Records
---
Amino acid sequence: MKYPVTDTFTRCFPLCLRLPVCVIAVFTWSVQVHAQSDTAENGKGLTRNLIEGGKMQGFLFTDVKGIRLQFSGYVQADFIHDFSEIGNIHAMQPSTITVPTVSDGNTAFTIRQSRFAFTAFGAPDAKGRALKAVLEFDLWGNLSGAPRLRHAYIQHGKWTFGQYWSNFMDGDNWPNIMDYWGPNSYIWTRQVQLRFTQALSESMMFSVSAEQPGGDISIPSTWSSKTIYPDVTAAFQKTFGVKNASHVRLSGLLHPIDYKNGDADTKTSIGGAFNISGNINLSKNDDVKFQFAYGSGYAKYSEDISGQGYDGYAAANDKSISNISMLATWLYFDHFWTKSLGSTIGYGYLQLNTPDLNMPVGTLKATHYGSFNTTYYFTSFFKIAGEVLYGKRVNTDDTSGDDVRAQFSAFFKF
């Protein structure tokens, strides 16, 4: 539900000026906070990268018969205002922005990012292989905050079984943002999978996986999607630098897209892509994080447009689908002013190549995403942040719509 608002800011500033005005406001706030006494521990212990990577310690719940059960999680409250109309009011999703721009603001207060997890550590087996199982939930199930399963997996030595981050994505380069979904072009999805990981040296790792089948396609009503062959991924990651704080990751994807056409013929189109990503630690206070992915038929793995049918397309008179090419890239910079104050700025771009597919007018062509924030860490478990975001959707007929969002968040981990 939208809640139209009219205020002085909306009336007096055109949309193109609101982003720089909001950035200046957040920067001014950061300078004021900076002047406070620095009593917190290093904020790098509470970054988004550590949170999403499951590297935060919880507390021991029980220890019985060789199994240690750990409980962890966090509470996050988000206070969000959009200056233009957007479909997703709880995360910046540029593909849902109304085209053309509609200056109809909305305010949302939400705790849906909050999450909790149970982690069980089993005693090593006879060969010394570690054993771990994880169940993790957030409150993204509905607008009222119903629990939703995020992760459910078992790790036994080099093997992973269950639902976890796809091996095609880089789980070690999250920019330090507060927005739930992050850059529009992020290769970000959870998949049920069977994964094998092999350390090649102290600084090199190789992994391969078979992952949840299924295509994300736009097809006529007389066709049907099938799930026959699993996705296959492979990844190589190299760490380097001081304390191995930097890394580069190269991953590849084969994505079979199975379907039955109007003649009841079962067919498979092979999608595929590569993904180059990483984190470059410039100093103890500075990190550059990036991703560059390209291929066709892999929109299923995209943060912004997954579930919207952009793996492939077929018109009513076609006999087979055509895969849609996609470029997905982003660049972010994390900086700590002090051990308790940090800022993050970056930009993401996603583009689809659809001119030869005769798709309907108004089909998505590209999306843009930009954000800037300042975060203050009161302690090693509590932080607040102010974040300004910008999103834009461009259609194939070159019509577009954009939105500026202001967000304030409070975060407490346990």
Note: The first strand starts at residue 59 and ends at 64.
---
Amino acid sequence: MVIAIDGPAGAGKTTVSKLVAKELGFIHVDTGAMYRAVTYKLLNSNIPLDDIEKVNSELDKMEIEIKICNNEVVIYIDKKDVSSEMRSECVSVNVNTVAAIPQVREKLRKIQRSIGEKYNCVMEGRDITTVVFPDTKFKFYLDAPVEERALRRYKELLQKGEKISFEDVKKAIIQRDQLDKTREINPLKIDKDVIVINTYGLTQQEVAQKIISYVKSML
């Protein structure tokens, strides 16, 4: 069974997804981490991201392996755990470019669907409800005003010790929204039968409980 959680940057998808997965005993799958892993490998291999032919050639050779540890997905690229490396600032700057490449999305989509076929999971990402698992009956879209999402992301970054202004975070969120909604391949959108949850004014625990209550009511 797959619970799909979609939505824009800063809407709280990751924390909420983890809470839901923990409560239900499901596996948590952060699909954004997969794009980060591929981005890290391409950069580490000195592949120019604007050279699609070289990107595709490297992608064809790339061995992506998924392991489950404590109900979380651990990503191995060519037999190496890249969990730490893929969180670098360099990867953060370039992951949007890689995520827009059709061949990358197709390769990772197959892996994501394979996980969903094998495990009960809560899978989060920006096209999970519309492209990867459009037929699951548990589809949620988390949303909130830009100011709220930027504030949430700003606090997260401060807790990590990063020095950044709120205005810079807000600007980055707005830019990410624009990129996600206008990209040619699988743009961010709200599917017709998805349950939209406005997270404004709600704690992440409250949002998670809304999802859990709905899922349990449908079982």
Note: The chain has nine helices and eight strands.
---
Amino acid sequence: MKTVLVLNMGMKSIRSFIFREDGRKLAGAAMPLTSAINDKRVEQDASEWWEKALQVMGKSIREAGIKTLDAITVTASASCLVCLDKEGEPLAPVMMVSDKRAQGEAEEISRLTEFAEVREKTGLAMSSSLLLPKILWVKHHAEEVFKQTVYFFTPNAYLLYRLCGRPVTDCLDAEKFHYSQAGGKYPEKLLRILGISLDFLPQVAEIGTSVGVLPEKMKSTFALKGVTEVVASSYDAICSFFGSGVADEGEASDVSGTVTVFRTMSYKHICNKGEAKVYESLYRPEDARIVGGSNNLGGGLIEWAKQCYYQNEPYPYEVMEKEAAETAIGANGLIFLPYLLGERTPIWNDDARGVFFGLERMHTRKDMTRAVFESAGFIDLDMKAAIEETGIKIKQVRLSGGLARLNLISQLKADILGLDTLVLSEFETTSTGAAMLAFIGLGVFSGVKEAAKSFVKVRMIIKPDMENHAKYLHIYRLFKSTYEVLRPQYKKRLQMLEEIRTDREVCIENL
């Protein structure tokens, strides 16, 4: 029976899981990652990634007690910029996806006539969360790093490179550089205008293909025998979608780890009216389009609330859930805008920040926690509305990720969405999806539907309370209008900060 190791790097931790082709998880190991946060800056250390990757892979292989491994695959956060020198070593901290320093560069690229053609081909608007603006920021503000860089990589590309020595990533991960699957190439004309060499970007492979083999030295480190293929799966949001078992139109997945990823499937090209609010990614092997997007914080909101209000609790999540359940729908008139790190899908506003609206003397931490919990549901409703603007109708949602461990939040999401909500048995759907794609690549399964039969199980189905749903729609309308009223104030806030602040302290966090 074939085995696959999945190296999964998220915002908070790096994990290694070993799967058998029947869906059984043989072993797993995880280590936390640290982030440096200061205003618009969000950074991690790629050297820490690799050091801990070796540790978790070694631990999981030893725990599984295996001597052979058919394949290793990597799934990691997308749109994070890794700059490598000619020795393959990082030249600077990694600019993470939620880093917003490249806002000006994103606006600069958006104004170029050469970008209009790229936008038409890829359907992808320009944003500071993407990679070309980040590379341009390095060119403008870290000239020596730019001059010494030989490879501009994503985390997927970096980890694949460390595993097999080939500078490569999959086609969906490459889209974050505005790679066009239809044309099969990067935007060469735009890259020339920006002064970015095509040679410095990763090669592109189809999902499920072998991109190399594990070298003898590394096999010796892990005491492995035989040939171990290195197989391209894709970045974490795509893998988690497949690991949720979505196989039909009308189904959607909500995977809430540090961020919330909300996506659905369509077999036709979507029609974005006006400025696109959601992504469309083509999974070529099945001619299926994955539609939706990721925000900046999902489960990360709960971590923030825990750090603020529950630091001294021995069992913080249990207390948070209990207290939030004791508070009325609508948190006694308190609404939370969850934009602590700005926002991606669907509002695409780097300047937005978090707000408690309606705070009164009577409110307690229970109400504030309830408002944060409910905001997690409003995030889903916002993404669902943006997807349905394209003509897709969502009828059911599958929940996974760490946030799905909190039953109250799962019920809130069902009530807010007004849909049947399936909570999956396996919360770690990113690794599950990556394993499924690797096994498909190895020829074990013919496609995603067949793989899902072995890998995906439903733990419970939550029916929405439609009376609560009607109440939440009223609250959601105020949630949306509060944001719209505040939108112009966010830029004024930035202007104020520029005038009054001194350098803010760098905060070291586990997101």
Note: The two ends are 37 Å apart (CA to CA).
---
Amino acid sequence: MIETPVNLTRNILLGMLLGFIIGASFYYLEFIPKSVEEFFAIYLFSLGGSIFINLLKMLIIPLVFFSLVSGISSLTSMKSLGNITLKTVGLYLSTTAFAVSLSLIVGSIFQPGAGYSSEVAPPEKLPEGQGVYETVLGIFPSNIIEAMAQNQMLAVVFFSILFGIALNKTNHLTNNFSSAFERLNIVFMQLVIIVISYAPIGVFCLIGKFVISDGLDIFQEAFKYVILLIIVLLIHVFLTYSILLKMFTKLNVITFYKKMKEVAIFAFSTSSSAATIPVTLKTVQNDLGVNKNVSSFVIPVGATINMDGTAIMQGMATVFIAQMSGIDLTLIQYVQVVILAVVTSIGTAAVPSAGTITLVIILQQFGLPLEAIGIILAVDRILDMIRTSVNVTGDAAVACIVANSENLLDKSTFNK
């Protein structure tokens, strides 16, 4: 078995703490020369963080391709793949619907936007959204090489599934060629270990970059919104997923969260579900005992359509902006927010702050001021880090549930 670097989680936490301390020192201590601050910000934090993110992104497409192909090509029954697909998509959409509903309820009760007096500042630039039509069409690539180069995850997943099915059906004609993909998958998992062994340095740079540029002042304007959003995120990640795991798997939830620490820290540092895929796959397979036939499908798909944390933000932000604008949303409109959040989550890119794209769609639907996104964006960077941790935890929870239902969960590995 491929071994994880010793004390990796502890070292990542130390890197995070050190990055926060040094970044805050440069941001708040005025006697530090500007030239020194710029050197740390650009040539240490920004460069180091970007290199680490690029290394992670470098692994995503080949890892997803080889893990999916090797998993599907070794299936003894194609019916199993259909069951895994239905259960995965059903669970992801259900948890997203519950997440945004929970956010809307809490926002309506505690009213984060009530009495808001600050002027709404327009953002410098709004991201362009992707419609349902484009999202569905994008699943079927006209050029798979181009799709891989552009990190179009759903297209890569679709092609990998087709390739895996074809390989499965022709194994007897190709002298068991699928075994080559299994060996390549092992090689790429080892490459993941090599890259994440430098995670403490990467996390140090990423956290330092964030703090040295933004500090903590951005939380003052929308304090109640920030606090309520964090509370709902924590409720969802620790309560909702615990209930689902207990209900469908009977697994020890404490063990689950302990083993997910490293993944959550990675997700927090990178703010990208896609960049965290290599670490999530490694943890789900090696530590949680999920068979690769399940994990190789559930995790990449989850990075694209499982946006529980993003849905929570969208619900709370919609309520916040409506309240600060003096607009009362009806029950029917709340239901529409839930539906929109679930549908648009499928087209949300698994990259930092991509949830803002779908928030624009929701605000436009109800005639809410788009200028208010300036406030949301001001506090979104740190919240996005937390949301991403929620998303990847949900991916792992669904992987455990689906694997258990298919008798593809090694509970002895999980309980180690």
Note: Confidence is low (pLDDT under 50) at residues 118-129.
